[in-house]
Amino acid sequence: MSGMEIERKFLVHKTMDWKRQATSCSHIRQGYFAAVNTVRVRIRDAKAYLTIKGPSTNNGLSRYEFEKEITLDEANHLLQLCEPGIIDKHRYLVPVGSHTFEVDEFHGDNEGLVMAEVELGNESETFEKPDFIGMEVTGDRRFYNSHMRQNPFKLWRNSLPEEYR
After folding, report:
1. What is the CATH number for 105?
2. Which domain holds residue 106?
3. Could you tell me where the beta strands, DSSP code E, fall in the chain?
4. Number of domains in the chain
5. What pTM does this model have?
6. Which phi-psi region, left, alpha or beta, contains residue 143 (left: φ > 0; alpha: ψ -120 to 50)?
7. What is the pLDDT of residues 64-94, one digit of tens each?
8. Cβ atoms within 10 A of the Cβ of 36, count?
9. Rounded to an integer, what distance in angstroms lies between the CA atom of residue 165 and that of residue 52?
10. Is residue 144 flagged as an active site residue?
11. 32, 92, 144, 164: which is the annotated catalytic residue?
């Protein structure tokens, strides 16, 4: 798959019960390679992918993305070549209106962070915002998975309002 990725990211209110609305859950482990662009290998349950993302535009709303499925064996070998700081999270799919929110619950050094993103067909597309969605963090580099591997949430969690820690 390749093309323009258009998404908005939000923090999730800790007190909301969003998990009951989820239609699926998968476990994701991903690592990153030293590169000018974002290059990652991801294992999601029993499938694996190699992804290359270009620089963000429009305050982090859009960027080019190339993704190719690879074998689990290839992914496990590539993870050994990644920079330190493997991202570990569970992803829940929560349908809301005509969109599906991907809600990531992070583990390890990013434990306590819960973030939702919604992919859009164009930058001005409207969408229904569920109650569990809080502060928008689209374009805030602290919330890029590639950034959190070097600067994990545990180091800056207290900079956020209590409801998102």
Report:
1. 2.40.320.10
2. 2-164
3. 2-12, 24-33, 38-44, 47-53, 62-70, 87-96, 99-106, 114-119, 133-136
4. 1
5. 0.89
6. alpha
7. 999 999 999 999 999 999 999 999 999 999 9
8. 7
9. 30
10. no
11. 32
